Each structure stands twice: as C-alpha cells, then as structure tokens.
Amino acid sequence: MHRNVLRLVDEIGLQVENDALLNRLAEFGARVDRTKQRVALSPAQAEEFIASSEPVLWTEGDLGVHGGVEVYYGQYLDPRTDQYVPMTVERVEEYFRVARTMPYVEQTLILGCPLQGIPPALEPLYERYWCWRLGARPGGSVHQLRLCPYIVEMCEAHAAAVGHSLQQVFNAGVYLVPPLKLGYQEAAQVAWFLDRGLRVSIGASMATGGASAPVTLAGMVSISLAEHLLLGLLNRALYDDRTWAIGMSVTAMDPRTMMRPYGRPDMVIANLMSAQMARRYHADFGGHCGLTDAMRPSPQAAAHKMQSALPTLLARGKIGFPMGLLAIDEVFSPVQIVLDNQLVSALEQFTRAYEISDEAIAADLVAAVGPGGSFAAELHTAHWFRREMWEPTVWERRPFAAWRENDGRTDAERAREQVLDILATEPLPSDFSKEEDRTLQGIMQKALAP
After folding, report:
1. Which of 170, 173, 175 is nearest to 196 (CA)?
2. pLDDT tens column, 396-413
3. Lowest mean pLDDT: which of 20-24, 226-230, 405-409?
4. Which of 18, 124, 391, 449 could form a disulfide with 187 if both were Cys (CB 3.0 to 4.6 A apart)?
C-alpha cells in the first residue's frame, strides 16, 4: 500500500488551482507543474517528508471519546410529534438545549446555516451570527471569495465583544470536493486569508468507492492516504506544520441507490487499515465513526454507531462521536442525543485506566471469604463498586419480571421522556449583547447590498 501511495503522490499529485499557493509550494521544494496546476513529490521527497515530520505519540495526548452535537442541512425529528420538520432557529435552540444537559457533549456546532428565512448567499455570515447567539461553535463555512472581508469584519466585532483576539475567534475551512483537487474557489479563499495572517483548515475529500475512487477497500484507502500526505505537505509549506494527520472517511457507493452509506462494515475496516498506516508514518489519525444510515432511533442506529465507533476507538484510543445524528447527517434528533450520551458513556470505559494492585485484586480478601463465600457484604465491595463498575442511566438494568411489572419502557421511550422534561424547563438567558447584535446585523446588511 505504501508503495502505491508513493506512486500516486509522484505520478498524480495534488491539483491546486491557485498560482500564489503553487509559488509557496515550489519555494518549499515540491515539484510543481504549472500547466496542470499540480504539485507532486518524488518517492524520495515523500519519504523525506515523512521522516522529517515530528512523530505523533499515540500513547500520549487526550485519549477518550469526544462527543459533539452538530447541525448541518436536514430535518429536525420533533420529539413531541415524532415527525420530520424543517430546521428553524427555535428548533436549533432546543436541540442545543438538550445537548447541553448531557455530560458527554463537549461542543455544539453549526456548519452552513440551514435555517429558514435567511439569504442563501450569506449563509457563512449567518452561520457565525447564529452560532455566537446560541453559544455554539461555527463550522467555518466560506463558500464565496467575496464574503471573506465580511467574515473577518464579523470575527473582529465578535472578538471585541467577548474580549478575545481575532486569531482566537477566527474559524474558516474549505474542503477538497473530488479527491486530489483543491478547486479555484477554495484555493483562492485559502490564499486570501493567508495574505492576512489567518489560517484556513483544508479538509480532505471523502472518497467514494465506485464513484470518485476505486471500488476496492485498498484503492479507496490508498487514494485517501496519498491525499492526506499531500495535504500535509501543503500545510507545512503554508503554515509550517511539523506533524501531519490522516482523517479517514471512505466508503463505497451503493450501486442500487447511488447513496454513500455509513452503516456498512467496509467504512470501519478502512479506518482500521488507515490507522495501521498512520502508525507506520508516526502521523496522527482520526476516522469517521458514530454515524448511521437509520432514519429514526432504533436498534439499527445503535448497531451502526457502535459498529464503527468501538473498533476505531480501540485502534486509536480516541474518537470524535457526532451525537444526535441520523440518516448519516441529515436528521437531527434530540432523543438520539440522549441515547448517544449513554453510548458514549459506555465507550468511555474502554479508555479508562483500571487499577491493577494488591488492593484491587484483594487476594487476602479472597482467602478470607474462602471457596463458595460471598463478597456482597464486604467493605471492599462497597468501596470499589462505584469507582470500578459502569452504571447505565437509560439502558435497561432490571430483570425481566421487574421491568414488566414496573413500566415496560424501552430505552428510546425513556430518552424521549427525558427530552420532554428538559424542554419543559425555561432556557437560560443569552449573554449575547444588543450592541454586538446590531454590529453584526449591520455587517450582514452591507454584504447583502449589490
């Protein structure tokens, strides 16, 4: 696989449709073909890039399951009616309100601005506006080069309002849509912000087997590895990054429906293959997981999420888990947030450092209790039980008879009741000031003018 990655990096390279970025890459020592607007590395150069990178030590750092609640474009699964409805500001607010009561939600985020009643051409500006109003993190949409000055002006205004620097507040990202190609719009946006000392994250494509990549697992993974290697080169030339990372998100197209499914095992296997390669390269690694093709909270949703999350977690020691998402990322369910919170809680146990000691093993106690004895009344049991054993809050934990005689509810029914209880409380007041509101609204109105 490594031999073919080197071949792809050398013979195909990365198309970068911007002369200024190509100049930076050429100055860095990469091979640039200006006619094709491509940058490439010889096998020797690629090996040198890998060897000169600072190694990422997988045994160190922030291990664990990092849950987040994110909003993209799609439908809200209303917990009151169990119907799909369009996303509105009010529904995003209550979606995030549920999220913030869950102990395993670390952040809330909006990418794009799928809300009714806003000018579509200004979505990146409204994304930031509503994120700041709702206390969420902007995903960093840019979309059009002409919006770049307004994005900076809005970030400057928000930074002043919250007492941060522009660099702390600024967030922008572009993506390779087809593999191995940074298109002219996205490249121009990177260059525009770079000239002003601001960094844009450049996300890899999500190669699809049988469509934008070979249908085989080895082919999908190899083209993605080559792309990440070349993006590592680009980030070093532009931003002097000393490490590089592989973020895997590949799967094969469904030939019957033309859908890009996340629930099949091949996506998980691709994560495990690329994790092995990332270890070889001493690079960082992350893999898309915790998603489902299921349309509602269901056994299918739970199986898909666990199927992809647990192997990826065990391979790397940490994952990002997108909570509340169904239909890949087109349906946003508060009930699923509660169910995913339970799932993340269980997954966290796989990253715990369990104590191995004489006290924990309790050989003296075993000898004292003797064969056939009971540990139920021992102080050691009372002392260790809560710190050692995981306890569910939504999943069933009673014997069948007790469950049936009490309420007979499923985990999804309990989760829905919990959501309705949360939404029955008054939301916390916003600390978003009227002055900042007027300033940001004024900037967006300027951007709307022809």
Report:
1. 170
2. 999 999 999 998 999 999
3. 405-409
4. 18
The DSSP call for residue 330 is T
**Tokens representing 343?**
């799932």
Verify that 241 and 384 share a domain, yes or no: no
For residues 105 and 155, state if they share a domain. yes
**Beta strands 64-71 and 105-110, pairing class:** parallel
- Which pLDDT tens digit goes with each residue over 78-119? 999 999 999 999 999 999 999 999 999 999 999 998 787 889
In angstroms, the Cα distances linking 25 to 1, 30, 61, 142, 375 are 26, 6, 31, 23, 67
Instruction: Give the number of domains in the chain.
Output: 3
HSE-up (13 A, CA, CB side) for residue 303: 8
DSSP for 94-141 reads HHHHHHTTSTTEEEEEESS---TTS-GGGHHHHHHHHHHHHT-EE---
Residue 421 pLDDT greater than 80, yes or no: yes
What is the rounded CA–CA span in Å between residue 110 and residue 92?
Answer: 9
Return the percent helix, strand and coil in the chain, to nearest 5.
Answer: 50, 15, 35
List, in sequence order, every residue forming a beta bridge with 16; answer none if it has no partner: 182
Q: Which of 239, 233, 242, 255 is nearest to 180 (CA)?
A: 233
- What single DSSP character describes residue 166? H
Given the structure tokens 């990178």, which residue do they identify? 53
Cβ neighbours of residue 150 closer than 8 Å, sequence gap 6 or more: 125, 443, 444, 446, 447
For residue 368, tell me if it sits in a domain: yes
CB atoms within 10 A of CB 65: 24
**Domain limit, last residue, from 33, 50, 67:** 50
For residue 421, being part of any structural domain is answered with no
Q: What is the pLDDT of residue 430?
A: 86
Same domain? For 249 and 168 the reply is: yes
- Asked if 291 and 343 touch (Cβ cutoff 8 Å), the reply is no
Q: Residue 368 belongs to what domain range?
A: 358-388
What predicted TM-score, i.e. pTM, was given to this entire model?
0.95
Q: Does residue 293 share a domain with residue 168?
A: yes
pLDDT at 176: 97
Residue 286, H or E segment: strand 284-287
Residues 290 and 335 in one domain: yes
| Within-domain flag for 96 | yes
Please check whether residue 109 is in contact with residue 68, taking contact to mean a CB–CB distance below 8 angstroms: yes
Residues 18 and 154 in one domain: no
Alpha-carbon distance of 292 to 298, in angstroms, equals: 10
